[in-house]
Every structure is written in C-alpha cells, then in structure tokens.
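Q: Predict the bound structure with zinc ion.
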Amino acid sequence: MNRNCYKCSKYLVHQIFPYIGKCEELNIMTLETREPCQKYVEQSIEEVKETFEVGDILYCPVCKEPIYTFEEYLKHKEHKPSKKFLIDETIIEETYPG
Ligand SMILES: [Zn+2]
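A: Predicted complex:
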C-alpha cells in the first residue's frame, strides 16, 4: 500500500500549493509525500458521496474549479478535491494589500 499524507482525510490541503498542507489530527504542517502517522484515515468514497447528497460542493486545488457532482469528482479524484482549505494568511495579505 502506497500511503502518504495526501491520501489521508485529515490532510487539509493548501489552497494554492496543494503539495503542502496541515494535518488536522496532529495540528502540524506536513507534505503530501510524507509517510502518514498511525492516525491515517483514507478519504472514503462514501464520505464524498455524502458531501454531494447534503448539497455541498468540492473544490479542485489543481484545476482551480468547483466540483458539483460525483461524476465530476471521479475525473478529479487524483487531485484530491476538498471541501476545506488551509488559507495562508500571508498570501491573503499579499493578494489584497491595504
Ligand atoms: Zn482537477
């Protein structure tokens, strides 16, 4: 099994740099390629289906586009679409000065 932090559902992907993220479990910054800890939980298909069933959408950090259906999700699966993003406050300041 090829496990890494990126495949873990606890990995909060960075909005602009998807290869870095925050581990929600340990509350630390991590990399997508890092070997996962013992709290590793793979993001399940059921979890994704449920997201659409309750009317939520996902966002693809690689293509920078929203995902509205499960069919669309399958096309972006490897991009790790997410509901939640880690917002880098430094970058926000740079993008919206003043
Ligand atoms: Zn994508």
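A: The helical segments are 45-53, 70-76, 89-95.
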